[in-house]
């Protein structure tokens, strides 16, 4: 089995590459990445592995997508520009990467006769849906350009699966965290920001009063579901969409308290305004992924946060 991971130098992609290379049944793991938000340091440990290949390229360029798909059996498409605020600041670039790049990858897969394609969607597609927990069949109206790009991905995936005999699985990741998640830059996610603050004794800013909730998900769950869908049984000519989360909800203040305790920090948080485009409460129903793929989420947040804190201490 030869697998292409786009965005493999990023947080989720590099964790997936590591897990794939640990398996004997995977003969090649190729990464396509342009290092827009990913880092060479995330994949440095694999560069000497004869079963690993790096294609430096851009999913906005169809030729790069075709080159990366040569001889590949299945694709895990993780490359995208994440972050709701980034998409509000620059919707065109988010569209070009997340939608046009996505379509280029689907076209490359079609042209090369690859039948299995799994990809990163996002819980942001639930938008303003005022229902909890979220189930895959019902979505609301999107609240940001980022969510619009991920919703568009799902529409194209549906059309490609039906018309070109592909098996496609889209993953609506809820808030993922773990080792190799970038703590730097204006669009860093909340858990790496909290850990960085705790380790450096700098007060973190909590958006709102801390009561915003998320279904925070250790990256191991995301890695596992990608592998289950890449290697397991999926029907032909079918597009599946799965929630990927723990199925538990935790508020920001509780996460900060856990991080503070694990990092043994004395610093106190300050509060800022709720960000535009942000969903206030988020909880997933993960029973569809359990039923179809045998997904078993690891939901020990404290253990996963401890792993993340250890990683950031070592940086
Ligand atoms: N982290 C989360 O909580 C979360 C939640 C929902 C969805 N997602 C989605 O999961 C995927 C992976 O996210 P992540 O958190 O690992 O982000 P990340 O930024 O760490 O990884 C994205 C990777 O894609 C690469 N990339 C960006 N633009 C590219 C381009 N034009 N051509 C080639 N490569 C490009 C980046 O360099 C990076 O290595 C993304 O599709 C993201 O939208 C993530």
Structure in a nutshell:
By secondary structure, the chain is of the alpha/beta class.
Description:
With 315 residues, the chain is α/β, with parallel strands linked by helices. The protein has one domain: NAD(P)-binding Rossmann-like Domain (Rossmann fold, 3-Layer(aba) Sandwich), CATH 3.40.50.720. It is built from 10 helices and 13 strands. The strands form 4 sheets. It has a 7-stranded parallel sheet with strand order 3-2-1-4-5-6-11, with helices on both faces. A two-stranded parallel sheet has the order 7-10. Helix 5 links the parallel strand 5 (116-120) and strand 6. The radius of gyration is 19 Å and the shape is globular. Nicotinamide-adenine-dinucleotide is lined by residues 7, 9-13, 32-38, 58-60, 78-82, 97, 101, 120, 122, 173, 175-176, 182, 189.
Structural domain count: 1
Which distinct ligands sit in these coordinates? nicotinamide-adenine-dinucleotide
Which structural category fits the helices and strands? alpha/beta
Shape: globular
CATH topology: Rossmann fold
Q: Helicity, in percent?
A: 25-40%
CATH architectural category? 3-Layer(aba) Sandwich
Largest sheet: 7 strands, parallel
- Head-to-tail CA distance between termini: 33 Å
Order of helices and strands: EHEEHEHHEHEEHEEEHEEHEHH
Could you list the spans in which at least 5 consecutive residues all have pLDDT below 50?
none
Counted by DSSP, the helix tally is 10
Query: Biggest sheet, strands in spatial order?
Result: 3-2-1-4-5-6-11
Strands, total number: 13
What's the CATH H-level homologous superfamily? Answer: NAD(P)-binding Rossmann-like Domain
Rg: 19 Å
Strand content: 15-25%
- Overall pLDDT level: 96
């Amino acid at each position: 089995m030869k697998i292409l991971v786009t965005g493999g130098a990023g947080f989720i992609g590099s964790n997936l590459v590591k897990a794939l290379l640990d398996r004997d049944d995977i003969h090649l793991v190729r990464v396509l990445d342009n290092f827009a938000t990913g880092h060479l340091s995330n994949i440095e440990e694999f560069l000497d592995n004869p079963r690993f290949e790096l294609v430096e390229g851009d999913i906005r360029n169809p030729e790069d997508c075709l080159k990366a798909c040569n001889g590949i059996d299945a694709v895990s498409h993780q490359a995208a520009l994440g972050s709701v605020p980034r998409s509000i600041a620059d919707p065109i670039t988010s569209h070009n990467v997340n939608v046009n790049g996505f379509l280029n990858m689907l076209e490359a897969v079609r042209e090369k006769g690859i039948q299995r394609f799994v990809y990163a969607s996002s819980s942001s597609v639930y938008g303003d849906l005022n229902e909890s927990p979220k189930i895959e069949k019902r979505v609301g109206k999107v609240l940001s350009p980022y969510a619009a790009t991920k919703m568009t991905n799902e529409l194209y995936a549906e059309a490609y699966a039906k018309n070109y005999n592909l098996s496609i699985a889209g993953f609506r990741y809820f808030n993922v965290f773990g080792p190799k998640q970038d703590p730097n830059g204006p669009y860093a996610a909340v858990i790496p920001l909290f850990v960085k603050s705790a380790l450096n004794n700098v007060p973190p800013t909590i958006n709102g009063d801390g009561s915003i909730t998320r279904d925070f998900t250790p990256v191991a769950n995301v890695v596992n579901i990608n592998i289950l869908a890449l290697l397991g049984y999926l029907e032909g000519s079918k597009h599946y969409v799965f929630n990927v989360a723990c199925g538990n909800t935790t508020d920001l203040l509780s996460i900060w308290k856990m991080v503070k305790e694990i990092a043994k920090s004395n610093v106190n948080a300050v509060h800022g305004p709720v960000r535009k485009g942000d969903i206030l409460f988020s909880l997933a129903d993960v029973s569809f992924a359990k039923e179809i793929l045998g997904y078993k989420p690891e939901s020990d947040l404290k253990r996963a946060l401890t792993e993340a804190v250890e990683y950031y201490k070592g940086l």
